[in-house]
Specification:
104 residues, mainly alpha, 62% helix
Length: 104
């Protein structure tokens, strides 16, 4: 009975959310999204940036964890740090970008 009550409450919350919540119109929407986009760097340049970051990270971690098994995901770590950089400014942003090896 508890599962049924919980299911009903969650379903009701979802329905009320979809009925009463409105999305805000975006007045700054770009009428020409494709033509005004900045071009991204070629993928081979991005790949070398990620490879350099992965190598530097491996070197730093292997010194710290000498003679131990080392498993990490440089892609996940660089993605997390890139997401972190979205909330930073000034010196912190510059340090994160430099640490990741990104050329902005």
């Amino acid at each position: 009975k508890m599962h049924l009550a919980l299911s009903l409450v969650l379903t009701l919350c979802g329905l009320l959310n979809s009925i009463f919540c409105e999305t805000q119109p975006n007045p700054k929407r770009d009428p020409h999204p494709v033509s005004s986009r900045k071009t991204s760097p070629p993928s081979h340049e991005t790949d070398t940036d990620h490879e350099a970051f992965a190598y530097k990270l491996f070197e730093a971690l292997s010194v710290e964890y000498h003679r131990k098994n080392l498993i990490f995901s440089p892609e996940s770590i660089s993605t997390a740090l890139a997401m972190l950089s979205l909330g930073t400014r000034s010196t912190t942003l510059s340090n994160l970008v430099a640490g990741l090896g990104f050329d902005l």
